[in-house]
Amino acid sequence: MAGSWFHFNLSDFAFSFLGVLFESIPFLLLGALASGLIEVFVPARLMTRLLPKNPVGAIALSGLLGAIFPMCECGVVPVIRRLMGKGLPTACAVTYLLAAPVVNPIVAVSTLAAFSGQRPWVVVGFRLVLSYAVAVLVGWLVNRLRPEEFLRPQVLETLPGRAGRRTAFRFGALPAFAGVGTDAGRGTTTAAALVTPFTGEAQTDAATGEPASLAELEAVEEELRPTFGRRLLLALNRGAEDFLDVAVFVVVGAALASVFNTAIRQEAIQPLASNPWAATGALMLLAFFIAVCSTSDAFIAAALGRDFKLYAKLGFLVFGPMFDLKLLLLYSLVFRRRFVVLLGVGLFVLIGLICVRLSVVLN
Amino acid sequence: MKNRLLASLSLAFWGAALLYFYLSGRLGGHRGGEPYLVPGLQPLVGAAGLLLLALAVGMFLRRTPVILGSVGSGGVSRRGATAQILAFVVLNLPVATALCVTQDRFGAAAVRNRGIATDFASLPAAAVAGAANVLPAAPPTAVAPATVAPSASSSSSPNEPPLPGETPAADQSDNEVPADIAAALPKSPDGHLLVNVVDLLMAAEDDTLRPQFDGKTVEMIGQFMPADDAAAPAATTTRGVPTANRFRLVRMFMVCCAADARPVAVNVEAPQPPKLAEMGWTKVVGTVAFTQDGERHNVFVRSQSATRTEPPKEAMLF
């Protein structure tokens, strides 16, 4: 066993697996409940009011929203799903998705603490700036795509003003008042259906089958506004459903990461430390497979020893929160599979290139 | 009805599992195992468990059906009953299996696979400062003499150095290393200095601490792991000592959760091959010694005795 690089033990796996779940579930629940509250309480036009009209400015601002609304990488996926339904431009949503788990005060402080004695301010500065820059760049690139090219159809249909195969009055597009999983969509591909919450009774308006604009959504919201208590209950139920949606993928991701964490000999990557390309690539792959959250990954990176230089550790710190095993699965809730793969490969190459170039200053 | 039942069952199962682990103490390693999470995060699990149970009840009582495993924005899913049952199984079966087989600790294989740190540079300095019994990492500050009695909540094992927070806080404005470390550290009833693994690793890196620890008799506990030459080169202890007489005393160092826990260890050389169970809790009494390998200083302990002991109150260092 001493020479074997793979040794699986079910008990060890279970301990690590449950550790990951116990750590992530509270934050996942928080993100899911936040998404439910956004769905019910955030007015449809708020996003468009808050952000600059200029796409570049809006994307740039979205990269900084994590400083005000920090969110871990597990919780951010259900949140942006709802925010897009509220009118947040998709490019801004992608930027926030990538930046929020890193560009926030909590991660800054934990990184400072972890790298104490290893040029902490340098590491924090590079981590935040590089993460922000990559997120904004990706958002800018996404802005050049049509949403149909990268969003899943179910998510696409919820965007305000979109026409899909189903009616635009889906439950995401009409956030506050639609029940979930009703029969409204069955066989009614053009009719708009409004569902009274908690009763399942479908009300069919004089639907034209035309996509709903934000103004129409707001008008309907205002007309059918129930009590605060009922809205809160609906928000909690939505949050619970989002939690279950996301939890399936977190379970799979946590299981795969735990296999790597416990069964594979991590010393095997030590010989790669001497080559900048191999070192950076190896640490980014390590970040992908161990899939730890952005508040604790800095301590793991700092503990990787003297052999791995700061530029390689930076790759670990920037790539991991943007794309890891758990996120690979979570992103598939929102994005098409091809886009998810391209995003992962693109981030790996881009961040890897930048970090290797930074080897002249971060040695 | 069925879909609502599956969803609420899932929420209830997860909520019950979280609440059980929190209330039973297994989450914090208080039932003979190791903690799953650092203490600061444990109440969040309890709260999440309660909330999930409440959501389960709410989900069950709602009158509109639920599509389990709906992908997208919560809209009507095209998934049939089979897909929903599959989602239910994926959501719950791995967790249920893990709950049944976990032994609340890592075994030797997982510890080896994670890579055992035997030098202070491999540890995040700021986090280690909280786990060390001696001094914060950089800069060194004075430790107040142990004249204050340990609190009632101190570790149940008399061999374990007081946990951080149980000894008086160091005077942060005093950056002087104590002139006599022996006076500053807590002692066992036999008069041996009580240290933990991190203390000795820190001492090895510090020019002022090294001479103060050199030759001192210390007592520490950890989990026993036999040495192997690849992992514990002979140069790190006295040359010529057979591998069979060498072992490692390991502690797991956790930042957030079990998944990020990393093993740290001090090498020990014994007069005879020890007959101890792998990963068993072991108390070592011995003298501290240092070797030098280029610019790197290594610490090891020449043990006088290595005996089985009870696990400490906190199995992991935070």
Question: How would you portray this structure in words?
Answer:
The complex is a heterodimer of chains A (363) and B (318). Chain A has helices spanning 10-41, 46-50, 55-62, 73-85, 90-99, 105-114, 120-143, 147-150, 153-156, 214-223, 228-263, 276-290, 297-302, 310-322, 325-331, 337-357, and strands spanning 193-195, 202-204. The longest helix of chain A is centred in the C-terminal third of the chain and has 36 residues, at 228-263. Chain A is 60% helix and 2% strand. Chain A contains 16 helices and 2 strands. In chain A, a hairpin with a 6-residue loop joins β1 and β2 (202-204). With 363 residues, chain A is mostly helical. Chain A has a two-stranded antiparallel ribbon with strand order 1-2. Chain B has 318 residues and is α/β, with parallel strands linked by helices. Helix content of chain B is 30%, strand content 18%. Chain B has helices at 2-24, 42-61, 81-101, 108-114, 125-131, 181-184, 197-205, 209-213; strands spanning 193-194, 217-226, 246-253, 262-269, 281-293, 296-308, 316-317. Chain B has a 5-stranded mixed barrel with strand order 2-3-4-6-5. The radius of gyration of chain B is 24 Å and the shape is elongated. Residues 70-78, 135-159 and 162-175 of chain B have low confidence and may be disordered. The chains are: A mainly alpha (363), B alpha/beta (318). Chains A and B meet through α1, α4, α6, α9 and α11 of A and α1, α2, α3, α4 and α5 of B.
